[in-house]
């Protein structure tokens, strides 16, 4: 895959470049600031952009804003955001357009090379990869409104779906048959009021509903 | 007392003479002190008049006077503090009245783990720089401007009145030196007048200084308040730094040592026993991950990243997710406050929400943030059991005291049976 890498810290930039190289991917451009990142993402239209949240010049969430801006110009441009901390708020902003092709992981996830590579592939092909930490925090909380109607099993499954797992992978994780999982998926979509519509990605919409739930009263 | 035990040599006349001589000396000392600044400023035209400066200074040229003002201002600003210091010292020696300068006490700079010094206002490379920076900041204090004001007032009052005995003495001596009888008689008269007023002239300094130089009573009270606030803050700061040090020492640092050990062992085993080496490598990776997660928690407790990246309202939203409560947060997401104030408000809200979770017996709360007219208002309310109050040494009192440093107030409305509404108001320029 062709990758644009936006990371301002030298050591991490070099390390990530080496890692991506070792997967057989090609880093076509590196950017060290938010504006550079946006420019590189739009110009190179990579298969996936790997972006750090905090970058110069303002050292706030410049990288995230650059990624969102690039996605506004090129809808669905796959972006994997890596950060030292993950926030549910940012996850929702990334997913908000409902187009999918979004990942949001802690930087330590790269330690598990196989899983990281899988997340890259998944995001590049329009799926999602949310860090388990974002998801776990939400599972701890009492559910409200729409999610309150879900059964324990359906919520569990939705959490795994939020991490980006396929039905097949969810089945393996929960020790269920794939048929059972797709039944649960359908019932979940129904309860969340997500109609089968080929133009939208129901899995992404379900995840957005899941993330929004925490702030809805 | 001493004077009574050891009777003065001589009689009443001797005591009068002593007080007259002392009076001349003290008056002259005060006058010299008060006139130091005018003297230095006047030096310019005087030297110029004698052609010593080589400058075209002239009494009739308006620009010359402008230049004089240009000299007078920096000289006054530079000497105000030492002059006031000498006044305070002389007053204490001769009247036993102790006069506070009224400056805030310099906080002791703290050495941070980065090796830099933090003096409560800025980071500096060395202890000396940190102290110097603090001293430079004194220019902004009211105490300094009181001293500048005193330098001007003293020159016009003390400088004139206290100069009388000295000037009279010098004139009298000059007159006495002449041989003719009339000036001699005048000299004697002048001498008598000089010694008559000398015991009294220097005494005008004390009431004047008490009125214009000493810090006023309510200022002293607020200084005491500031002192206790600062003590509170530096204690909290110190405790915070110790906690960070301990967390790093017991957590990440120890873990990284063990990661290093694992890697060293793996390096040694990689050829002879690749299986065990692999186990070591995996353990090293797990250790790295664990220390990263600990560092992340630590950073979150020091200054939450969202607060830096997004500001107060989104940070409160995020904090609300960490509690077991459902919290409705309303406020302008784009509101940007000075960083220390934002952090103080953030941690206050977190503590208030924790209080709700612990004591209110409800699972819902709301936070409202509003800023207008230079005032930011944060309201945390719940429909729980109520009865929250400020008890010294307890949680809410701690919140109030930490907010005090920002001139923020904490209002509690919490009748028994609820609902509870706690409002924090802070000025935000």
Biggest sheet of chain B, in brief? Answer: 5 strands, mixed
Number of β-strand runs of chain B: 8
Largest sheet of chain A: 6 strands, parallel
> What class, by secondary structure content of chain A?
alpha/beta
What would you say this structure looks like, in words?
The complex is a heterodimer of chains A (217) and B (429). Chain A is an alpha/beta fold. Chain A is 53% helix and 13% strand. Chain A is built from eleven helices and six strands. A six-stranded parallel beta sheet of chain A has the order 2-1-3-4-5-6, sandwiched between helices. In chain A, α4 (88-95) links the parallel β4 (79-83) and β5 (102-106). The mean pLDDT of chain A is 87. Chain B is of the alpha+beta class. Chain B folds into three domains: 12-103 and 141-215, no CATH class; 221-302, Single alpha-helices involved in coiled-coils or other helix-helix interfaces; 305-427, Histidine kinase-like ATPase, C-terminal domain (Heat Shock Protein 90, 2-Layer Sandwich). Helices cover 65% and strands 10% of the residues of chain B. A five-stranded mixed beta sheet of chain B has the order 4-5-6-8-7, covered by helices on one side. In chain B, strands 1-2-3 form a three-stranded antiparallel beta sheet. In chain B, α14 links the parallel β4 and β5 (364-372). Chain A binds chain B through residues 53-54, 59-61, 84-85, 87-89, 106-108, 111, 137-138, 140-142, 144, 214-215, 217, and chain B through 285, 288-289, 292-293, 296, 299-300, 305-306, 308-310, 314, 317-318, 321-322, 324, 326, 328-329, 363-364.
